[in-house]
């Protein structure tokens, strides 16, 4: 496995629409090795998710994992390692919540983003089997953030109130306690 470089905001690749992956391509050894690299790179950077396009492969594959000991997001409900290929996301209902997001492609910045509280995600797993996930609350935000990357969108595009932008230090100092209380309410209301 190889740790890959993570593209940083301003690199044009992050604004591309990633292309669909065929079943044949997915089953190939290079793609399977690539998925291992994606997971390794995400874990090394303590990310909750990483899209292929963030490591310079504009294909529709994302990895998501929240282990429960994530130092970047200690309040996030756990999500087991999930590989989504060609994911399609559909909001369920019209409830939304505010999610304080960060991104491995956006150094030292967090901001408040409005997200759907419930989404249905349809995709293939890394072996091409169909998966359907009913994601809720904070976890639903994580899925929306990663699938956004495949369409060339970064969370900063969705920050409606720029006064919520914060460095990670200042988030910890001035916003974290309040947000953790709110995040717990979201988890209690919608589940993980
Ligand atoms: Ni991101």
Question: What this model shows, in words?
Answer:
By secondary structure, the chain is an alpha+beta fold. It has one domain (12-190): Alpha-Beta Complex (Peptide Deformylase), CATH 3.90.45.10. The chain has helices at 23-27, 29-44, 137-150, 168-190, and strands spanning 49-51, 61-66, 79-91, 96-103, 106-116, 118-124, 130-136. A five-stranded antiparallel β-sheet has the order 1-2-3-6-7, sandwiched between helices. The longest helix has 23 residues, at 168-190. It starts with 22 loop residues before the first helix and ends with a helix. The relative contact order is 0.17. The mean pLDDT is 95. The chain binds nickel (II) ion. Nickel (II) ion binds at residues 103-105, 145, 149.
List its traits:
binds nickel (II) ion, Peptide Deformylase, 30% helix, alpha+beta, two-stranded antiparallel sheet
